[in-house]
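Thread: quick sanity check before group meeting

JM: Hey all, I'm pulling together slides for Thursday and realized we never actually wrote out the predicted structure for the chain we discussed last week. Dropping the sequence here so it's in one place. If anyone has concerns about the input, flag it before I start.
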Amino acid sequence: MTNPHDRALPRAVRLAMPLAQDVVEEVAKLHGVCIRPVPLKRLDTHTGRWEIVDVPCGSPLESKCPPCAKRNKQLRKAQCREGWHLEAEPAITPDEPTDEQRWLVEFRADIQAQRDEAECHGGDTTDWDAVIEGLDEEINAAGMRGNVLGRTASKRSRSTRRRQDAPDLPKRKMAHTTLGRTFQTPDGKTYRPSLFVTLTLPSYGKVKDGAPVDPDTYDYARAARDALHFSKLVDRFVQNLRRVAGFDVQYFASVEPQKRLAPHLHMAIRGTLPRAEIKQIAAATYHQVWWPSADQVVFDGDHLPVWEEEAGYLDPDTGEVLPTWDEALDQLDADENAQPLHMIRFGDQVDVKGVLAGTKDADQCIRYLSKYLTKSLGEGLDSQAQRDHAARFVDALRYEPCSPTCPNWLRYGIQPKNAKAGMAPGRCRGKAHKPEHLGYAGRRVLVSRKWSNKTLTEHKQDRRTWVLEALGKTDEPTDPHRYIWRPVPAGDANVPPLAMRLLRSVRERQRWRAHMAELQARADGQDLSANPHAA
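JM (edit): ok, ran it. Output follows.
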């Protein structure tokens, strides 16, 4: 065996030897151990004991932590499979409020009354508002969802009248169910089919092998805005789908990049509708972005708005304060001839496929839904033409406002919402402007609330409980509410080096796998003893 510390060896030979820490990380990946664990302090509320625990980073991207990406992918596949072809209505019944919860709300009512009385007499309500804010936090901590006052801010609304160029949709009376129709064959068999739908965006120019044939005529501006607002279009499609279906349609969807880099949607839908209706819904779905105009550049280069405390951003020439986001929207609302900044619609390509539970088609669709979940939208650029295409796409996004808080609004003479010092056009840190996301800042996986009647955390807990039972650790606590978690300060001497933590995790994973293999061998042996002909 060659000794790397032998100085008689040529330098090239020594450098060709793998680093020990790199091998530790590679072995950790092979055993499914998170290579970027986050150390946290955990308090067991039953025993009062503090300990430092490594928590998986949970990275959704393969480039950051492949084991966590693979684990998340498997969880999503399990979530998709479990909720797609339910035969019974998922029961979601809120628990009865506890005495503590009732007392907190009653106390909140008393404090609110005293605060209102102080306001009526012209008194200072700052202290009362602070007490109310703390009480609202206690109410949520006690296991109650939402805010006791509900929505307090007024919501801007526009006419809901459909555009003349959008076809009308049928509307059925809503039924209180999430299950689709069942069909019976003459021989008495019952089927409950579901759907797998793929929706794409329209064309922006002729494309060959994932890159524009003529980049100069390719509509990058429209492609960028479509990517930015694609998630809103998906929301509109779901709303229209439920109106036409007549029941609370549940779905599991994933957003993936096409080869031309435009986002498109794969959606598993519980229940079924005629294919013609799905295509009609897609054709009639649109989303209008009612934002101030971003087509005329007001400030550019070194000629940019200047920040002044208390006032906000000013015109560098006139000293006038730029209109705030709310003021710009007020001007838009007051203009009867105003047009939306952008309107987004689906393309003509709509694929609809019927799927039955337990078939190869169902398994294939689930694999397809999770195919790209471990990769970013910007990965998979195979050629120089595609890389150039991606660069032009990112350049088109650079000055495009991605949200009301985007600094790019300064370029068009408007203060972003919640403006602060240091903002500059072209320097937005939002997810949409990062090359790996290509304009799409929404969630990659979209799951309706009544899909499997479980959150992803609950699916993860089910998996952990199953593993512990298989390992014979039924006494291991599984209640996630038993613990209180706190961050570990940087440089804490109680946290071992990363390599040591990885080695410990690898050893634990080896022990689990050996135990699982032993259990499997026992099960196989029992099967053979019960049926000797099976050998």
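AS: nice. Residues 498-530 form the longest helix (33 residues). The longest strand covers residues 38-44.
JM: adding both to the slides.
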